[in-house]
Amino acid sequence: MKITENNVAYIDGANLYNGTRNLSWDFDYGRFRIWLSEKYKIKKAYLFLGLILKYADLYNDLRRKGYTLVFKEVIYDQKGKAKGNCDADIVVLAMKNYYERKFENVVLVSSDGDFSSLVNFLHGRDKLLSVISSYESDKCSILLKKTGVKISYIADQRNILEAINKKAPDEDETS
């Protein structure tokens, strides 16, 4: 498949966050956006998130890094834990954009097997460049693996996607 210039990414924000927080290194959202652009020619990266107002600064930072945020209304369970499942919203937007011919190819960022039908649909039409799993191979859904599509793992991209912690001079007793 030829990688064109009009590709989009659909990113399951909760899945990305939960998968990358379990890494032994700090994931950098800015570097990830650049990597998507350079490797897959991603023009638009839709990042699906539950909307929680206290995170407004984070949302603004993600927008500055080049993400197009798509919010889901959040509800809270009996223990007060926020729930903002965006899976259906990702599928609906991807299908809408497919039928409106708003992209050439797609990258899906999730490890969730609920997306196997979407993956099969896009793959069958030669529109799926890759699934990018935020979890390591053993935690990526078997349903995604059974589709036979290419799955890349964020954990394998540490040298590219790790946050660079810049220390102030003399902070570590060096100059």
Short summary of the structure?
With 175 residues, the protein is an alpha/beta fold. Helices cover 34% and strands 23% of the residues.
DSSP helical segment count: 7
What fraction of residues sit in β-strands? 15-25%
Taking all Cα atoms into account, the compactness measure Rg is: 17 Å
Residue share in helix = 25-40%
How would you describe the shape?
globular
**Strand line-up of the largest beta sheet:** 3-2-1-6-7-8
Whole-number total of structural domains:
1
Q: Structural class from helices and strands?
A: alpha/beta
The CATH class designation is Alpha Beta
Annotated CATH architecture: 3-Layer(aba) Sandwich
- At the fold tier of CATH, the topology name is Rossmann fold
| Low-confidence sequence ranges | none
CATH-assigned homologous superfamily: 5'-nuclease
Distance between the termini: 49 Å
Question: What's the rounded overall pLDDT mean?
Answer: 90
